[in-house]
Amino acid sequence: MENFNFYSPTEFVFGKGMEAQCGKCVKKYGGTKVLIHYGSGSVVRSGLLDRVKKSLEEENIAYVELGGVQPNPRDTKIYEGIELCRKEKVDFILSVGGGSCIDSSKAIALGVPYDGDFWDFYGTGKPVEKALPIGTVLTIAAAGSEGSGASVVTKEEGMLKRDTGSDLLRPRFSVLNPELTCTLPAYQTACGATDIMAHVFERYFTNTKEVEITDRLCEGILLTMIKETPRVIADPDNYEARANIMWAGTVAHNDIVGVGRSQDWNSHAIEHELSGLYDCAHGAGLAVVMPSWMEFVYKHDVMRFAQMAVRVFGCQMNFAEPEVTAMEGIKAFRRFLHSIGMPINFEELGAKEEDIPVLVKKLGIKDKTWGFQPLSSADAGEILKIAAHAKVEE
Amino acid sequence: MENFNFYSPTEFVFGKGMEAQCGKCVKKYGGTKVLIHYGSGSVVRSGLLDRVKKSLEEENIAYVELGGVQPNPRDTKIYEGIELCRKEKVDFILSVGGGSCIDSSKAIALGVPYDGDFWDFYGTGKPVEKALPIGTVLTIAAAGSEGSGASVVTKEEGMLKRDTGSDLLRPRFSVLNPELTCTLPAYQTACGATDIMAHVFERYFTNTKEVEITDRLCEGILLTMIKETPRVIADPDNYEARANIMWAGTVAHNDIVGVGRSQDWNSHAIEHELSGLYDCAHGAGLAVVMPSWMEFVYKHDVMRFAQMAVRVFGCQMNFAEPEVTAMEGIKAFRRFLHSIGMPINFEELGAKEEDIPVLVKKLGIKDKTWGFQPLSSADAGEILKIAAHAKVEE
C-alpha cells in the first residue's frame, strides 16, 4: 500500500426532509450571508428552493440567489456568481442541485477571494489557497462532488472542460435527501448511476498490488449499484433503492475507496472531451467510453479484470483462460449499461466517428497520460474507435 | 434506510515513517503545549517515543509526558493526566499507543475543561460539551478509537468498564504507520483482528432492511480480515497485510459501515464484563462471546446469518434449510478465530462458569437491552453458558 492522507471532514446529513436542516447547518459552519446557487427550474417548481429559503430565514440568515447553472457548468455563470458575492459580501455558498451546481459553487468559492481569474486554477494544478465555505443540498446521485474537493467546469469559448481540486473545496456539510431524486427521469438516474460506477472503476484499476481492503470496498459499491439501479429504473419511487444509490454515490467519490494506490482517470478525461464537444450527459459519455477503455487496456493486467468479472459481475472463473473471463466481465458491464438505458456507442450518444481527430486533439495528450496504462494520443484514438462501433454482446 | 448524520473529520496520515509528521500535524491543529500520553515501555524501547518528541521539537512545540496507561485504562491514571494538563497548561493531547491509550487520552481531554468528575460522562449519556483536541499515533490495529468519538475506560474500584462518546472526542489527526505493528506478538495481533471484525459484526446485525450499501461495505472489511489476518500471523513482517488490517480497523469503526440502520452492541457489552473481571484482552473476550451470541440470536433473522455465511465465509446456500447455512457461518467464524490463536471458551480465556451470575449482575440489565435482539439478564446468562462450553466444530 502506498502512503496516503485521507481527510473527509464534510458532515453528511442524510435522509427524508433533511433540507429543513440547511439553516442550522449554515449557522453551525459560520455563514451569515449566503449565496443560494442553483440550476434548473425544477428546484423552484418542486418547492425545494422555498424550503431551503425558509430554513435559512428561520435562523435569520440573509441570502441572495443565482440560478441558471447548466449541465457542464459554464465560466460565464461563475464570473456572474463571483461578482454577485463580492458585491453582496456573501460569506457562504449553498449549492442546491446536482454535481454541476456544486462544481460551479466551488469555482465561485475559490474565485471570490482570489485577485486574478478563477480559471487560473483549472487544468493547471495551481494550488487553491483560500475559498469561501460551501454547503450543498444534493438533488441527484452522481458526481460525488458533495463529498469531494474536486470541481470540473467548462470554458464556453472553445468548450474547454477542465478540473481543479483542494481540501478547501470540500463542502462543510452536504444534505442528502433521497426523496429529492425520486422525480428524476430514468435517463438522468441511469447517467448518475454510470458516473458513480465509473468513479469506483477509475480507482479499481490500479497498478498497486495487494490493497485488498480498497478492492473489497470498491466491489461492495459496484455490487450495490448493480442491485439497486435496475430497481429505481423500474420503480422510481423506491426510497430504499434511491437511498442506497445516493449514499453509494458519496462514498464512491470522497476517496475512501481510492486510498493507498495508483488510480486511473483516463476514461473521465476522454469523456470530458465528448461532453465538452456534444454537450451530452457526462454519465452517458462514460457509458460509451469506459467499457471501450477496458477492452483496450485489459491485457495490461488480465487477472485484475478477471477479478472484476468474478467478484462484481458473478462470472465463473476460467482458470485455463483468464482472458476469457476478463472479457466476459467487460461485456457484462456493457450489457448492464445497456439494460439501464445508457448509450453504448457513438450513434446512440449522438457523436460522430469523423470527430475523433478533433476529440483527440482537444484532449491534448503530451507524450503519455498517467494511470493504470498510460495512453498516447494514438491510444485515445483507438479507444474512441472501439467506442464508436461498440455493440452489446452475450 | 434510517436518517443519519455521518461526520468523520479526522485527518488520517497513513504509511511508513509517518510519525515524523506528528509535529506538523499538532501545529496544523493549533496545539502549542502537548501532553504525550503513552502506555507500555515498548514505545520507549522501540524508539518511537523519541521520534515523536523529535518531530514536536522540530516544530518548537513544548510537551510533557505521562506514560503507564494499562490495557483497560484506569481512572486513576486519568485523574493524574487531568491534573498534569491543568498544571502545565496543556492545550493538545497526543496519544502514542493503542486503543487503551487513546481512550485514556479522550477521558483526559474531556476532563480537563470540566468542573466535576470526568467519570460523570461514562455510562450515563451525559453529553460532552468541551474537550481538548487530541491526535494519535497508533501502534496496534484494533480498537478503531483513532477514528471514532468513543472512549471506554475502567473505574478501578469495582473494575467498572463504561463508555462515552462525542464528536468532540474524534481525533483531529491520526498517524497510522503499519510498520509499528510488525513487532506485535501474534496473540495481540489476533486480538486486534477479532476486535475489528466484532466492530463490523455489531453493525452488520441490524433490524433495518435493505441497506445494501452498508451490508456490502461491512462484508468487504470482513473478507479483507479473513484474508489478511492469517498472513500476518504466519509472517509478522508482511507490510502489505499489516497495512490492509490497519486501515480496515479504522474504517470498521469510524461508522462509515454503520450508518442508516440499527446496530447491536450486546456482544461488546457482555465482553466488557469479562475483561473488567478477569483483565483479559478485549479481543480475546470477544472471540469467546461473539460466536456464542450469534448462536443465541440467529433465529431472530436466519436469512441475515445465511447471508453472512454465504457472502463472508463462502458457505454454499442451503435453500431448503437456510438455518443450516446460518449455523455453518457461525461455526466457520469460530473456526477462523481458533485458527488465528484466539480462545473460544471460558477455559481458554481463563474465565469461570461459576462467575456467570456475577458477570450478569455487573452487566446490570434493566428489563432488556436494545439492539438486534434485545436481551434480558437471563439471555445474557444463556449466552455466557454457551460461551463457557463452546467448541470448534466442522
UniProtKB/TrEMBL annotation, chains A, B:
<keyword id="KW-0560">Oxidoreductase</keyword>
<dbReference type="GO" id="GO:0005829">
    <property type="term" value="C:cytosol"/>
</dbReference>
<dbReference type="GO" id="GO:0046872">
    <property type="term" value="F:metal ion binding"/>
</dbReference>
<dbReference type="InterPro" id="IPR056798">
    <property type="entry name" value="ADH_Fe_C"/>
</dbReference>
<dbReference type="GO" id="GO:0008106">
    <property type="term" value="F:alcohol dehydrogenase (NADP+) activity"/>
</dbReference>
<dbReference type="InterPro" id="IPR001670">
    <property type="entry name" value="ADH_Fe/GldA"/>
</dbReference>
<feature type="domain" description="Alcohol dehydrogenase iron-type/glycerol dehydrogenase GldA">
    <location>
        <begin position="9"/>
        <end position="178"/>
    </location>
</feature>
<dbReference type="InterPro" id="IPR044731">
    <property type="entry name" value="BDH-like"/>
</dbReference>
<dbReference type="Pfam" id="PF25137">
    <property type="entry name" value="ADH_Fe_C"/>
</dbReference>
<dbReference type="Pfam" id="PF00465">
    <property type="entry name" value="Fe-ADH"/>
</dbReference>
<feature type="domain" description="Fe-containing alcohol dehydrogenase-like C-terminal">
    <location>
        <begin position="189"/>
        <end position="370"/>
    </location>
</feature>
<protein>
    <submittedName>
        <fullName>Uncharacterized protein</fullName>
    </submittedName>
</protein>
<dbReference type="GO" id="GO:1990002">
    <property type="term" value="F:methylglyoxal reductase (NADPH) (acetol producing) activity"/>
</dbReference>
<dbReference type="GO" id="GO:1990362">
    <property type="term" value="F:butanol dehydrogenase (NAD+) activity"/>
</dbReference>
